[in-house]
Every structure is written in structure tokens, then in C-alpha cells.
């Protein structure tokens, strides 16, 4: 399925040219898009970011959210030009070159394998909150169940993701409503002290200075990783021309409500000085309110978020491996599909690696494994960079009349795409400055070397598919 061979597919239900089934409806696509923007980065990671920036973290989320919208609109323009399951790997291959597609496909695959390993292990850890059972048993059960669900049909994957996302959305909306009630009616232990003045009363809106706020942008951007997953569903959406633009256009209000809105409400009820790294701001808020059930609720929500991420990993890894195989950039056996249109071998291979990773994490939870896990952040941003560069090149060719115009043009592009690119590179620079985040950059050259050597081998065996540009 080289880029020169794939035709636009705008069919309805049933089999598509890639062999997949159009099994994801509008309801599921919308919740996959929403769930992709809400993860453990918000429920757990926001505590560290609040302690570093104070109330100005709200502004950081708003700015980063705007950049994410630019990225998603760039992806949307490409998706409406050619909706394929390979998504940004396919676009990188077409508009930058086969080597870029090779790197993007394998890097995004690794991103989800590593993420799946960490998330299924985390989910097993969260289970010990209620039951004292061995962690490996929970990890095994979760992996097998999600693996089975992904093999049965894409519709079942979509249904699971719908309900996982529903739990996360319900939790955030519930928190916002509770905080609004405390601010207006004054109930709970926090009723007497809750006030919007907390947003600027304790050291001002920028208590750690503007520099402190800027340095949290890397943490904020990490929270949005996986928002691009909706692009991988393009080849299996029932009506991509309608459902995908609607899902992408909801990005602004999703970020406004679930990130900016939720943080404004929480920081109005609980002063920012009460939050600490490693402690969920939701748990801290519930404790301040005197609601003892808060910890159990948040534990359930974070468990759901972890399973949602692992479920997404199962889904996307199989599709990426099949896309690489169809383009001659991966083993041909990954092209096989089940009768229901799911990539059997690719999903099985990825799930097996996730199981091995759970075992490694259980046996040797030392620094070496942590360094591999940290690589997930930089590999996720690589996909965003490829999306933006591909959109810039596509728009240039479409404007010259060489390619058909997309029905869903990114507003302000290519300037918005260039802005988003510069922003991402700025975040990478900040990662290099921050000692805690710098480890992510150390892993990148190692992976680049592995890919480079692999590509040279591929090039010697199949020059046509491995040509740097055609």
C-alpha cells in the first residue's frame, strides 16, 4: 500500500480497500477523540505542574491546547484528503519520503507498546487499592481481555473506548459541578474558604514567575499525548467525512472544559499551595472538601484511564505494523486480517511484547526500564511533527493544483502549522534544560540508530520500497 497506490476511499459500511471494516460510528469516534485528550497526565500529572507554576498553569493549558488544535486541524486536512488507517505514517511517507514513513510508523508503534506496558502495569497496581492480589495476575487478565476485545472486532474496541472515556468525562464534569456548588452554596469543609481569589491571592497568578509557567509546558504537552489517535481510526470510521471533522472541531471546548475549566474550579476551591507532586489534584481537592470517598473515586477513574490507554495501544500498534508491512517496510505476515477485519499477527505481536514488558517491570523496576519508558514522550511528539510537516507540504502541492484540495482545510495554515512546529521544538529544548525530562532525549539517538541500521538493511533487500524519495 504505497502512497502512490492507495486511492481515496469514501465508501460507507463494509470492507474498505485496506481490508478493514467501517465499524466505528459517530458516537464512538467522538468519545475516542475526547478520551484521547484526557489521561493520567491530567488526573495524576497535574499535581506536579501545579506545584511548579501555581494558578498560571491554567494559562499554560490554554496555550498548549491552542497548539494541539492547530495540530489536529492539520491532521484533519490530511484525513479528508485521504482517510487511511496508516494515518500520519502514510502522510509522512507520501509528502516527506519513505524513510520518514518508516521512522514514523515504527516510532509510533514503539510509543504505544511502551505506553501499553506502563499503563497495564499501573492498572494492576491500582487494583491493589481494593484487593490484595498479585500484581502480575491483574496485569495478565487486563492484557488478555483487551487483546481479545481488539481481535473480535473494531466495533468492540470502539465500545470499550466509549465507556472508558465516559467514566473520565463523568468524573471531570462531576468535579466541576461539585466545585461550582461549593463556590456558590458553601457546603463541605472547604465551603468557608473557597473563593476565586485563590487564583491570585497566594503569590499572584504567576507565583513561580513566568519562567516557571513556561517550564511546565513540557508537562502540559505530555498530558495531550494520544489526542492524535482519532487519525488512526480514519480507515475504520463509518462516515469519515462527517465524523472526523466533528470530532476534531470539538478539541477547543474539550480542552476548555476538561483542562482549563476543571483546573479553574479546583484551584478556586483549594489554594494551589496545597497541591504536591505525585498526588492527584482531584484526590487533594476531595480531601480538602472532607469527602472521604474521593480517593476511591479517583482510583477508579485513573484505573479506567490506564485501561483506556492500553486499549488504544492494542488497537493502534496492530494498524501501524500492518501499514508498514503493506508498504514493504515490515514483515509481510503483519498484513494478515481476521474475518472481522482486525490485524491478527500485528496485534498479537504487540500484545506479547506488552506481557514481556509487564514481567520485566515486575522483575527489574530499575533505572534502565525507566529510561525506556521516558522515551514514550519524545516518540509521541515525533508523530505531531510529522503531521505538521506533511500538512505544510500537502497544502503547497494542493495550492499548485498538483493534488485535490481537502474538504476540511486547516484555518490559518500553513502559518498555524509553522507556529505549532516552533512551539514543539521549544518544548523539546525545555526538555533538554530540565534534568528530570532530559532522559527522554538520551533515548532518542539510540532508537534513531536502530531505525537507521534497519532501514539500510531494508534498502539493500528492497530498493523500491526503501528509496528515500520517489
Description:
Belongs to the amino acid-polyamine-organocation (APC) superfamily. Amino acid transporter (AAT) (TC 2.A.3.1) family. With 470 residues, this protein is mainly α. It has a single domain, classed as Up-down Bundle (Amino acid/polyamine transporter I), CATH 1.20.1740. Helices cover 69% and strands 0% of the residues. It has 20 helices and no strands. The chain has helices spanning 26-36, 40-43, 46-53, 57-81, 88-95, 98-127, 135-152, 154-185, 198-201, 209-215, 217-223, 240-249, 251-269, 281-289, 294-326, 344-363, 367-399, 415-433, 439-461, 463-466. Helix 17 (367-399) packs antiparallel against helix 18 (415-433). The longest helix has 33 residues, at 294-326. It is globular, with a radius of gyration of 22 Å. It starts with 25 loop residues before the first helix and ends with a helix. Residues 1-17 have low confidence and may be disordered.
Shape field: globular
What is the strand tally? 0
H/E series, N to C? HHHHHHHHHHHHHHHHHHHH
CATH superfamily, by name, is Amino acid/polyamine transporter I
* Assembly status: single chain
Write the CATH fold name: Amino acid/polyamine transporter I
Strand-helix topology:
Blueprint: H1 26-36, H2 40-43, H3 46-53, H4 57-81, H5 88-95, H6 98-127, H7 135-152, H8 154-185, H9 198-201, H10 209-215, H11 217-223, H12 240-249, H13 251-269, H14 281-289, H15 294-326, H16 344-363, H17 367-399, H18 415-433, H19 439-461, H20 463-466
Helix pairs in contact: 1-8, 1-12, 4-12, 4-13, 4-17, 4-18, 5-6, 5-17, 6-7, 6-15, 6-16, 6-17, 6-19, 7-8, 7-15, 7-16, 8-13, 8-15, 15-16, 17-18, 17-19
Amino acid at each position: 500500500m504505497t502512497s502512490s497506490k492507495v486511492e481515496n476511499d469514501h465508501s460507507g459500511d463494509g470492507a474498505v480497500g485496506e481490508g478493514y471494516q467501517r465499524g466505528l460510528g459517530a458516537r464512538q469516534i467522538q468519545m475516542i477523540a475526547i478520551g484521547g485528550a484526557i489521561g493520567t497526565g491530567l488526573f495524576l500529572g497535574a499535581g506536579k505542574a501545579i506545584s511548579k507554576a501555581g494558578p498560571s498553569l491554567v494559562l499554560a493549558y490554554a496555550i498548549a491546547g491552542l497548539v494541539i488544535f492547530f495540530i489536529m486541524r492539520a491532521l484533519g486536512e490530511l484525513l479528508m484528503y485521504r482517510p487511511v488507517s496508516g494515518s500520519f505514517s502514510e502522510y509522512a511517507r507520501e509528502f516527506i519520503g519513505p524513510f520518514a514513513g518508516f521512522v514514523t510508523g515504527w516510532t509510533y508503534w514503539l510509543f504505544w507498546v511502551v505506553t501499553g506496558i506502563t499503563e497495564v502495569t499501573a492498572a494492576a497496581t491500582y487494583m491493589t487499592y481494593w484487593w490484595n492480589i498479585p500484581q502480575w495476575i491483574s496485569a495478565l487478565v487486563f492484557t488478555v481481555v483487551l487483546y481479545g476485545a481488539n481481535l473480535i472486532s473494531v466495533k468492540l474496541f470502539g465500545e470499550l473506548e466509549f465507556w472508558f472515556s465516559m467514566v473520565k468525562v463523568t468524573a471531570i464534569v462531576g468535579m466541576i459541578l461539585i466545585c461550582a456548588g461549593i463556590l456558590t452554596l458553601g457546603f463541605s469543609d472547604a465551603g468557608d474558604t473557597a473563593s476565586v481569589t485563590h487564583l491570585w491571592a497566594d503569590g499572584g497568578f504567576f507565583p513561580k514567575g513566568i519562567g516557571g509557567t513556561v517550564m511546565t509546558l513540557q508537562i502540559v504537552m505530555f498530558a495531550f499525548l494520544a489526542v492524535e489517535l482519532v487519525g488512526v481510526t480514519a480507515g475504520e470510521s463509518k462516515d469519515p467525512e462527517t465524523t472526523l471533522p466533528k470530532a476534531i472541531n470539538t478539541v477547543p471546548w474539550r480542552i476548555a472544559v476538561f483542562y482549563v475549566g476543571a483546573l479553574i474550579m479546583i484551584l478556586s476551591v483549594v489554594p494551589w499551595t496545597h497541591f504536591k507532586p505525585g498526588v492527584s489534584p482531584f484526590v487533594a481537592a476531595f480531601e480538602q472538601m472532607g469527602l472521604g470517598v474521593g480517593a476511591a473515586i479517583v482510583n477508579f477513574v485513573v484505573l479506567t484511564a490506564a485501561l483506556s490507554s492500553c486499549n488504544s495501544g492494542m488497537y493502534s500498534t496492530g494498524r501501524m505494523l500492518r501499514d508498514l508491512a503493506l508498504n514493504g517496510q515490515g514483515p509481510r505476515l503483519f498484513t494478515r486480517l481476521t474475518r472481522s477485519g482486525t490485524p491478527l499477527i500485528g496485534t498479537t505481536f504487540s500484545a506479547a511484547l506488552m506481557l514481556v514488558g509487564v514481567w520485566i517491570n515486575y522483575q527489574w523496576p530499575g533505572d534502565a526500564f525507566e529510561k525506556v519508558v521516558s522515551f514514550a514522550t519524545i516518540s509521541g511528539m515525533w508523530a505531531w511533527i510529522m503531521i505538521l510537516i506533511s500538512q505544510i507540504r500537502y497544502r503547497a502541492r494542493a495550492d499548485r493544483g498538483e493534488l485535490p484540495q481537502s474538504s476540511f482545510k486547516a484555518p490559518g495554515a500553513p502559518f498555524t502549522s509553522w507556529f505549532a512546529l516552533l512551539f514543539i521544538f521549544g518544548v523539546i529544548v525545555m526538555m533538554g534544560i530540565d534534568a528530570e525530562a532530559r532522559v527522554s532525549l538520551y533515548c532518542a539517538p539510540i532508537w534513531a540508530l536502530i531505525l537507521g541500521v534497519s532501514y539500510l538493511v531494508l534498502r539493500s533487500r528492497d530498493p523500491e520500497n526503501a528509496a528515500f524519495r520517489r
